[in-house]
Amino acid sequence: MEKPNKIVTKDLDFFYGDFKALEDISVAFKKNQISALIGPSGCGKSTFLRCLNRMNDLIPGSSVKGEIYIDGKDIYGQNIDVVHLRRRVGMVFQKPNPFPKTIFDNVAYGLRVNGIKERKIVAECVEKSLKQAVLWDEVKDRLHSSALGLSGGQQQRLCIARALSVEPEVILMDEPASALDPIATQKIEELIHELKREFTIIIVTHNMQQAARVSDITAFFYMGRLIETGDTETMFTRPQLKQTEDYITGRFG
Amino acid sequence: MERHFFKELENLKMTILNMAALTQRALENATRAYLERDEQLGQTVIDGDKKINALEIAVDQYTLKLLALEQPMAKDLRMILGTAKISNELERIADQAVNISERTQFLCKYPPLENIPAMDQLIDVSLSMVKKAVSCFVNEDVKTAYEIRKMDDMADEHTLTVLQTLVEYMVKNTPATERRRLNTRRSVQTIIISRCLERTCDLSTNIGEHVAFITEGVNIKHQGIDAEP
After folding, report:
1. Number of domains in chain B
2. Which fold has domain A5-97+169-248?
């Protein structure tokens, strides 16, 4: 049975002031699929990613045209609670950015700001999130040590656990492994595979092999436009368009 | 700035072309040795096979290196996988040329059999198919791949005719025991040669199929011969 669409964008344009950073993006991402966004620097893939949970709202002078639907509801429509939206659509960034707090408090933070205070529930949620992020076994004996004492790979998994703690439906990842060594990268990639069962994941990556390894769907962006999208196997073995072929084989970009 | 990798791909292609040229010449010489009963020419084919074997190993190592170090994508990936397979096919064609030359050396020791027109036709078809397979790779021409596949049926027909002609010859034309033995031996060796030629046609067909995969990413194996690009 075909999976339902989770996120759909229609004729999406995005502007930084007068500069049109995204043009006419219409694409659909299915539920419980991993989609990779690839393209050269400045092509708009990260901008597009940040449109999906309205992170771009925070940039002065930016504006959006077009529509983005999550589960059929326009997230730029009226009566949208942006904080609630960002809880549903979590985000993990390029550089691990744990708070200067304990491991436990990092994961508990999102729960507490959402009003969950009961210690037993918080502790259960922290454990569950750390297990989902495949970090539990490594940190269970030092939950109250500083998160800054973890390795880069562990910190990134902690950030993923922190994103998972508020039970999002979609996880956006902006080059989540680019600052990590190959072993830590492999762990993150394995984790992404595991998370697909419960979440819809969209990942921006500069690493073409990573896109090929982790994603079900690949979308190629170039100069603010979505050039080609398709199942990852086809995109990396026989893309339809020459522009895509030239990019993924390193002939431009 | 051109990527170093593209130069490596070009080198790989040149190695295959070198191998293809040697293989094509081996088959031409093997069939000429058979037709002209030239034992010495047959021996050059047998001796030359080492070089083709070495090139096959070089291509295997080269493709493995490019896959591991360059992690190619799309057409580059298909080119590397395809050339590895084409090199195998070429090496096997060269082995058939050796086999033909060895049979020829046996046949040269005895008086010739009467001419079998289907054998001449089979030689023409197989030489033409190998030639087309190589040009199909050089020009990345999928249309030729389909043409080769159609020619393979012709090769099968000629092989069958050679077999029927020689079986009939063995059965009918051999009253005396000693002569029967000789006729049977020569006929069997000739049948083996026809089988070798028929195999070269199959292998040429495979090369065409690999070229279609490299060029367009399509798999045209095991389709009816009427399938078109």
Report:
1. 1
2. Rossmann fold (3.40.50)
Residue B221 lies in a domain: no
Which pLDDT tens digit goes with each residue over B98-150?
999 999 999 999 999 989 999 999 999 999 999 999 999 999 999 999 999 99
Does ipTM surpass 0.85 in this model?
Answer: no
A212, B73: Cβ pair inside 8 Å? yes
Domain containing residue B154: 4-216
- Does residue B176 belong to the interface with chain A, where contact is any CB pair within 8 Å? no
CATH number of the CATH domain containing B75: 1.20.58.220
B76:A249 CB<8 A: yes
Q: At what angle do helices B177-216 and B74-107 cross, to 10 degrees?
A: 170
Residues 6+ apart with CB under 8 A from B63: B12, B80, B81, B83, B84
Q: Is residue B228 part of a domain?
A: no
Under a CB-based contact definition with an 8 Å cutoff, are residues A27 and A19 in contact?
no
Separation of alpha carbons A98 and A103, rounded Å: 9
Contact at CB, B71 and A236, closer than 8 angstroms? no
Q: Do the chains contact at B75 and A245, CB–CB below 8 Å?
A: yes
Percentage of chain B exceeding pLDDT 90: 81
Residue labelled with tokens 């490594």:
A138
Cβ–Cβ < 8 Å for A14, A56: yes
A 188-217 → B contacts, CB under 8 A:
208-209, 212
Which tens digits make up the pLDDT trace of A178-194?
888 888 899 899 999 98
B227 within domain boundaries = no
